[in-house]
Write a structure and sequence with these properties.
Layout lengths: L1 E2 L15 E6 L1 H12 L3 E5 L4 H7 L6 E5 L3 H14 L5 E4 L3 H10 L3 E4 L1 H14 L5 E5 L2 E8 L2 E7 L3 H13 L7 H27 L4 H12 L11 H30 L18 E4 L3 H12 L4 E5 L7 H6 L4 E3 L5 H6 L7 E4 L4 H14 L5 E5 L3 H9 L4 E4 H13 L6 E5 L2 E5 L5 E4 L10 E4 L5 E8 L6
Parallel strand pairs: 2-3, 2-4, 4-5, 5-6, 10-11, 10-13, 11-12, 13-14, 14-15
Antiparallel strand pairs: 1-9, 3-20, 7-8, 8-9, 16-17, 17-18, 19-20
Length: 473
C-alpha cells in the first residue's frame, strides 16, 4: 500500500481561532507551541486546581489534552474535565492498558494515547532495519513503512532469515550460561554432583559388570553419602567411593548455597527457558520504563532475543517484565564490563531509551567503546547536549520521542484520530485513520513563562498561563 502526502489539517493564520486547554509539562509545551503556531488560543497548566480547571473550561472549548506521566493524575483530571464539560474532545496520556480501557469505557469521547505506544514502531524499525521508518503489528503479522519516491509505502514485514537464524542461535547458546555469581555457583555444584554420579555408574557397569539399574542405585548411594554396599565392592571401588563421597559433600554445599541465594533473592534472568540471557543476534534495551518495556515486548513478538538493563533494583516494571518473560539485568549500563557480559559485540543493536537524555548519551558512548560497529539507537529530546555530542562524532540513530508524541496529540485534538507518527529526517508524518500520511509541522515549545507559587499546604504549583494566538509567519 502506498500512502500519499496531503496538506496539514491544522488551520493556519487567517482562520477563526479555537480554544484549547493543555495540562502537562514537557510534551504539553510542544503541543501548546503547535496550537499557537496554528493560530489558536491555548490555556496551559502543569497541575491546575479544581477551581482553576473549572474557570479554564467556563467557555467554548475545542479540546483538552492531559499529558502527565502519572496515570492516576491523568485519570483524575480526565474525569474532572468530563464532569465540568461533558462531551468535549479529550486526549489523555495513560500508560497502563487496563486503566486506558476503563477510561475509554467511562468517557467514550476520550482518546487515550501513550508516548511509549507512539514511539515503539519507530524504535523497533531503527533497531532491526534502519531503512524502514516504522514496524507496526497488524492482524496479519507486521507491516513496515518505507520512504519511497516522496511517499510512504507500507508493506508486509517479516524479519530477514539471517536475523531470525542469529536470534534463534543466540537463544540456544544462552541456555545454561548464567551471567551472575549465584547461578554459576548453583550450576557448578549441580555439575559436580552429576559428574560423581556418572563416574560411579560407569565404574560399576564397565569394571564391575553390574546391571545398569543396580549400578545407578549404588551410584545414587555414593552421591547421597550413604555409600555402596560393602559386600559388592572391591578394595579399589571402595576407595573410589570414599573419595567420591568426600567430594560430594563439597559439591552439595556449593549447590545448596546457590539454590538458597536464588530462592531468597528475586531473579530477573533465568538459567534456562525464555528468560535466559541470549548470546547473539539480540537487542540490548537500556532503561525499563514504559518505552523500554514496550520495545522489549515488540521485539519478542518478532522472535528477536532481547535483554533489558535497568539500574534501579526497585523499578516498578521489573515484576511486569518477569511476568512477560523479558530477561532483565539490574546493573549500570555505563559500565563497560557489564556491556561485555551482555555480549554487546555479538548483538543486533542497542537501544538507550531511559528518560534522561544525558544518561542515554553516556550509555551510547560506552557501548560504542565496547563495540564500535554496533548499531546504537538513542531516545532523545531537546537537550542541548544531544546536538553538541552529535557534532563531535557519530553517536547513533537519535529519535525524538517528544516530537512524535506531540504530533500525535495535536493531530488527535484536530480530529484526525491518527494511527501513528513517523519521522523521516526532520520531517514528521502523521498516519490518518484511512492510511494516508500527512506532513506535520515540528514546532518549538511554547513560550509561556513559568510562575511558581506556594499553595497553602506548602506544595509548589506551576501555572503557565494563557496565551493568545501567535500567528505563524
Amino acid at each position: 500500500m502506498t500512502a500519499t502526502s496531503a496538506g496539514v489539517p491544522l488551520p493556519r493564520s487567517g482562520t477563526p481561532e479555537r480554544y484549547f486547554v493543555v495540562i502537562g509539562s514537557d510534551v504539553a509545551r510542544r503541543v501548546c507551541g503547535s496550537l499557537q503556531a496554528a493560530g489558536h488560543l491555548v490555556r496551559h497548566f502543569t497541575h491546575p486546581t479544581d477551581e482553576e480547571l473549572r474557570q479554564a473550561l467556563d467557555r467554548e472549548v475545542a479540546g483538552v489534552a492531559i499529558l502527565l506521566d502519572d496515570d492516576v493524575e491523568s485519570l483524575r483530571y480526565a474525569l474532572a474535565v468530563e464532569h465540568i464539560c461533558p462531551g468535549v474532545t479529550l486526549v489523555v496520556t495513560v500508560f497502563d492498558r487496563t486503566v486506558a480501557e476503563q477510561l475509554v469505557r467511562v468517557v467514550p469521547n476520550c482518546q487515550v494515547t501513550s508516548p511509549a505506544e507512539v514511539a515503539a514502531p519507530v524504535l523497533l524499525a531503527a533497531c532491526l532495519q534502519p531503512d524502514l521508518l516504522a514496524i507496526t503489528p497488524t492482524r496479519a503479522g507486521h507491516a513496515g513503512a518505507r520512504w519511497e519516491a516522496d511517499t510512504v509505502r507500507v508493506e508486509p514485514y517479516r524479519p530477514p532469515p539471517a536475523l531470525r537464524y542469529r536470534a534463534r542461535l543466540g537463544k540456544i547458546r544462552g541456555q545454561l550460561r548464567p551471567h551472575d555469581g549465584s547461578s554459576r555457583i548453583l550450576l557448578t555444584g549441580l555439575a559436580g554432583l552429576l559428574a560423581v554420579l556418572v563416574a560411579d555408574w560407569i565404574w560399576s557397569v564397565v569394571l564391575r559388570h553390574r546391571p545398569p539399574v543396580e549400578a545407578l542405585f549404588e551410584a545414587a548411594r555414593t552421591v547421597s553419602a550413604v555409600g555402596p554396599a560393602p559386600a559388592h565392592g572391591s578394595d579399589g571401588y571402595l576407595v573410589f567411593s570414599s573419595l567420591a563421597m568426600l567430594v560430594t559433600v563439597v559439591f552439595t554445599a556449593v549447590f545448596t548455597a546457590g539454590t538458597v541465594d536464588r530462592l531468597l533473592a528475586p531473579r530477573s534472568v533465568g538459567i534456562v527457558g525464555p528468560r535466559a540471557l541470549p548470546r547473539a543476534g539480540h537487542v540490548v534495551v537500556v532503561g525499563l520504563g514504559q518505552v523500554g518495556l514496550r520495545l522489549c515486548t515488540r521485539l519478542q513478538a518478532l522472535g528477536v532475543g532481547v535483554v533489558a538493563v535497568e539500574r534501579n533494583p526497585a523499578a516498578p516494571n521489573l515484576r511486569l517484565a518477569r511476568a512477560l518473560g523479558v530477561p532483565v539485568v539490574v546493573a549500570d549500563a555505563t559500565d563497560r564490563f557489564v556491556l561485555r557480559e551482555l555480549g554487546l559485540h555479538r548483538a543486533q543493536a542497542m537501544a538507550a531509551v531511559a528518560s534522561d537524555d544525558l544518561d542515554n548519551i553516556a550509555v551510547s558512548v560506552a557501548a560504542l567503546a565496547v563495540a564500535p560497529e554496533l548499531r546504537v539507537v538513542m531516545r532523545a529530546g531537546d537537550h542541548e547536549a544531544i546536538a553538541e555530542t552529535r557534532s563531535l562524532f557519530r553517536i547513533g540513530l537519535v529519535n525524538d520521542l517528544g516530537s512524535l508524541s506531540a504530533a500525535y496529540t495535536t493531530a488527535s485534538l484536530s480530529g484526525l484520530r491518527p494511527r501513528g507518527v513517523l519521522a523521516h529526517g526532520k520531517r514528521l508524518l502523521v498516519e490518518r485513520a484511512d492510511g494516508v500520511f500527512v506532513p506535520w509541522p515540528d514546532t518549538q515549545r511554547c513560550d509561556h513563562p513559568q510562575e511558581r507559587d506556594a499553595d497553602a499546604d506548602g506544595t509548589v504549583r506551576a501555572e503557565l498561563g494563557t496565551s493568545g494566538p501567535a500567528r505563524a509567519p
